[in-house]
Amino acid sequence: MSNGDAIKVAYWPGCVSRGFTPELHGSMALVAERLGIELLELDRANCCGAGVIAEHNQELADTLNARTFALAQQTGLSMMNICSTCQGAQSECQQRLDADSAYRAHINEVLSGQGLSYEKGKDGFTNKNFLWLLVEDYGLDRLADKVVRPLEGLRVGPFYGCYIVRPKHRLGYDEHPERDLYLEKLIEALGGEVVEYDGARKCCGFPVVTMNRETSLRQAGTHVGDALDAGADCLVTPCPLCHLNLDMQQPEAAKVVNRELGLAVLHLPQLVGLALGFEPKQLGMGKHVAPTRWVEERLTVAAGA
Amino acid sequence: MATYTLKVRRYQPESGEGAYWEEFDVDLDPSLSVLDGILQAKDRDDGSLAVRCSCRAAICGSCGMKVNGSSTLACKTQLGEAHAAANRRDGAVAANGGGAEGNGATAPPRGADEEYTPEPTAGTNPIVVEPMGNMPVIKDLVVDMESTHWEKIRRVTPWLLPHGEPPEREYVVEPESMIDVTQTMACIQCGACVSSCLSMEADPDFIGPAALAKAYRFVGDPRDAESKERLHDLAHDPHGIYDCTHCFSCIDACPKGVAPMDQIMRLRRKAGEAGIEDPNSGHNHEVAFVKIIEKKGTLDEAMLVQESYAPGVKGKLKPSKRGIRETIKSLPTILRPLRKRKVKLRQAIPGTHHKLPGDAMADVQAVYKHAEEHSTELNLYIKGEEGDEEEAVAAGLEPERTEGSGAAQPHSGGDDQTLGAGEETTEERPQ
Questions:
Q1: Which helix (H) or strand (E) is B66 found in, with range?
Q2: pLDDT tens digit string along A25-79?
Q3: Chain B: closest CA distance from residue A225 (Å)
Q4: Which residue out of A186, A201, A216, A256 would a mutagenesis test of the B interface target, given it has the greatest number of B Cβ atoms within 10 Å?
Q5: In b/e form, how buried is each residue of A145-183, taking b as 16+ CB within 10 angstroms?
């Protein structure tokens, strides 16, 4: 794929985007159509395991994800996801599958019974988060050309999600060393202003929310608070699990860190969608728990100016 | 030779004043280390600049600190690469603003050997040098490892607990049975992982990556007779193995490829295999997750929450006291999205989540059956990644496989030949 070409991908939306954050799946569909990215949804693929299945049985996680990759490879297309956690969990399994041909053959034994096979590097196969695809394949210049409502005056704090920034070697940072700067580049390409704050690449705390609620919510609350202190109007994240802790749990997190919060947290396609001219409501922002009014007011002011 | 500016976080307790930043210019070759820079500043400008160091070769583990926000060994970080990291994106994302762990020193390209010298980079941002995190600062770059790191190491009983009469001479073990623990044995106790730990930042009582990796070293040792007791202890502690938030910071911080988080996941796996149920819902959460995907193919979030707190809903709902408490606490979290119509009522009821189409479900279940028969664990630290050796040889970097060229996370000691033939990696895997 090179900039300017039509882009068509095997699309893995993940579980949470069709569960507790349906506005992510919906806004992705709108934005993809507007950008001319064709999404072929992998509706038979399974959960990535989110690291939890790997913790239980590594081979099980590897095989489940090999199955998803094989389904994607069957379409002849590369794969795109919209979840940092899917990206990290799938990359972990892909690293092991790609590292050892005997292991791969062993995994493919069971897949062959389903008419499937995962092959390393077949047709240049890659699995990229929407963020990576936008910057590396679609191109930020091309994206900027499509912007009809620059996000002028909107102060956006990036929130990456651990699984898309670490560990660096596994996540392709040797080849693409700036992957942990893409959100900043994207915000600027959309006309917004990047807010620097401490939590951008830290953990939202979600993975331990059922095990240690206080530790979990303290992480979410601290990052939201730091972003507010730095003057952010909103956060943007490519990870729906981070969104659950930063947005859905925000009122609870506020209690743990003992301060008022109330900061909008946008999914990545929502931020892009605003710049492409969609209305907040179309992008499902009315479904968020934290108020998004502030973002909407900024955009109205910018449009009126 | 080039000039670099080090921006050092100073703290001199005897002055009675708080911490402050001070910049030092140093003149050194880009291939020399940040530690060399600090020592030149100490030598030329201020002898009171406090720093711990000894071997200068990334083996003693004394000079742990943060360089551009990333926990690392100062002697293992070259000035050239640290300067480049400080000046990425024109420095807009430097350590003091938005550069959390993992955004600091960039590693040399894979396959690069010790002689690697980065190109000098433009940019005027200083290299930011700070003491390690999650530990009290004693003076300048020297932290109190005793009250944190070592206290936590002692917490996991870091010695063998064999049963029975000691043998007449030494305990004899098969070399193969020790392969599993070589990765954790590579630890040099530098504390970089502790410094980087994001769970510990939120919960200072978390036992943490270094100590839990050390715990695995004994749990995985065939001579230890109390592995199960150890696992029970670490699973039951609210700040134990289930308090790790899976942020991968320790994996990137470790200069020796120990991957502490991976060891914590292995402790969880072993605890699960030993049937240890913990009051933190850690084991329940794991089992519920695995079962839901087997049944439905994708995640039923409501079911996961309910099953984590009160497993066995069908017929024998037996929530623990903590389960009831936590469920009540999580009610507002589920009511708000219901009110906003973000989540439909149907979705909030455990068990109503859709399944994948019938034949896809059968395929997922076949995957489960196959994987559960084998349960292979492939440790790339031990096995290495195919192709690395060939690439390094082709690039003229390596005459043959040696440390640093093969595995993604090369181990720091031991014999490759022996390690390559381990039971963990080959025994269960068909040829």
A1: strand B64-67
A2: 999 999 999 999 999 999 999 999 999 999 999 999 999 999 999 999 999 999 9
A3: 14
A4: A201
A5: ebbebbbbebbbbbbbbbbbbbbbbbbbbbeebebbbbb
Best CA proximity match to A190, nearest among A263, A248, A277, A260: A277
Q: How does the average pLDDT of chain B come out, rounded? A: 85
Give yes or no for residue A156 having a pLDDT over 60.
yes
B161 CB within 8 Å of a chain A CB: no
How many domains is chain B built from? 3
Domain boundary among B91, B107, B139: B139
Q: Give chain B's length.
A: 431
Which residue in chain A has the smallest CA separation from B352?
A19
- Host domain of residue B194: 158-272
For residues B127 and B8, membership in a common domain is answered with: yes
Secondary structure letter of residue B342 according to DSSP: S
* Kind plus residue range of the DSSP H or E element containing B108: none
Which of B156, B260, B144, B134 is CA-nearest to residue B203? B134
Q: Does A218 touch chain B (CB under 8 A)?
A: yes
**Ordered structural domains, chain A, with CATH:** 7-129 (1.20.1050.140), 147-304 (3.40.50.11810)
Q: Which residue has the higher pLDDT, A16 or B430?
A: A16
Could you tell me the CA-to-CA distances from A174 to B53, B83, B107, B379 in Å, in that order?
29, 18, 8, 21
Lowest mean pLDDT among A153-157, A267-271, B85-89: B85-89
Considering the domain architecture, whether residues B75 and B98 belong to the same structural domain is answered as: yes
Tell me the percentage of chain A whose pLDDT exceeds 90: 94
Give the tokens for residue A82. 């919209």
Report how far residue A51's alpha carbon sits from residue A303's, in angstroms, rounded to the nearest whole number: 43
pLDDT bin (cut points 50, 70, 90) of residue B419 is: very low
Do the domain assignments include residue B148?
A: no
- ipTM confidence score: 0.95
Nearest to B268 by CA among A45, A284, A90, A54: A54
Give me B348's structure tokens: 């909030």
Residue among B92, B285, B384 whose CB faces A184 most closely: B92
HSE-CB at A89 with a 13 A cutoff on CA atoms is 30
13-72 in chain A: CB under 8 A from chain B: 15-16, 18-23, 43-44, 46-47, 49-60, 62-64, 67
Asked if B202 lies within 8 A of A51 by C-beta distance, the reply is no
